[in-house]
Design goal:
mainly alpha; 9 helices
């Protein structure tokens, strides 16, 4: 019996070690995607961004394929595709935006809390940025629903509050926009994401200046 117990314990320890290593691999690869995205989105001229996104999309798809069942790579795939759609523009951007939506929906089914409700945040952004019918799938109602879900899960997230504030500007609700944007500006720094934080805070400041706030 003792031998069996030792074997079972060793097997359990090995399984736990493998799971920990897999989680570390996901975190590392997701971190790389985040830094690459921030470099393109915040540190590269917009006119040069469109050519740089397809290789990053391919890299995100590779990370998703290497870690089936993990929400974080799917969230970053959605973020990268959404940003690519933004710089691409035109009707061709709609197909890219649909791919971003599908990745975010898949991530939400796996873990809607991952990366500070990143799946719901991405969906909210897509639904208020993409044109509505008959051109696209955009919907202010759905955008609000997803952003409400995101802020309920991650009320202090810089991204959730920024995008909710930005959405409120589009809804012509300046007091509410100011409330969310100021909260976003006060968010705690995210270790290892200093590049993204700096870029996001610049966007927050730009939105506040836009509404006189």
């Amino acid at each position: 019996m003792k031998i069996v117990h030792v074997i079972l314990s060793a097997s359990l320890l090995a399984a736990m070690t493998l799971r920990t290593a897999a989680a570390q691999d996901v975190a590392s690869e997701v971190g790389d995607l985040g830094h690459a995205w921030a470099k393109i989105y915040y540190q590269t001229k917009e006119s040069d961004q469109e050519a740089l996104f397809p290789p990053l999309v391919a890299k995100a798809e590779s990370v998703v394929g290497a870690h089936p069942g993990a929400a974080e790579p799917l969230i970053w795939k959605a973020i990268i595709l959404s940003s690519y759609a933004k710089v691409k523009g035109g009707l061709g951007a709609l197909d890219v935006a649909k791919q971003a939506r599908d990745a975010a929906l898949e991530a939400a089914k796996i873990d809607n809390k991952a990366l500070d409700a990143g799946a719901y945040t991405s969906l909210g952004v897509l639904y208020y940025k993409v044109p509505g019918w008959p051109l696209g799938f955009g919907s202010d109602r759905k955008a609000r629903e997803y952003l409400d879900k995101a802020v309920a899960i991650a009320p202090d997230s810089i991204d959730v509050n920024y995008f909710y504030g930005d959405f409120m500007i589009e809804q012509d609700d300046k007091p509410k926009a100011r409330e969310f944007l100021q909260k976003a500006l006060q968010s705690a720094p995210r270790p290892g994401r200093e590049d993204a934080d700096a870029g996001r805070k610049a966007e927050i400041q730009a939105d506040l200046a836009k509404i006189g706030g």
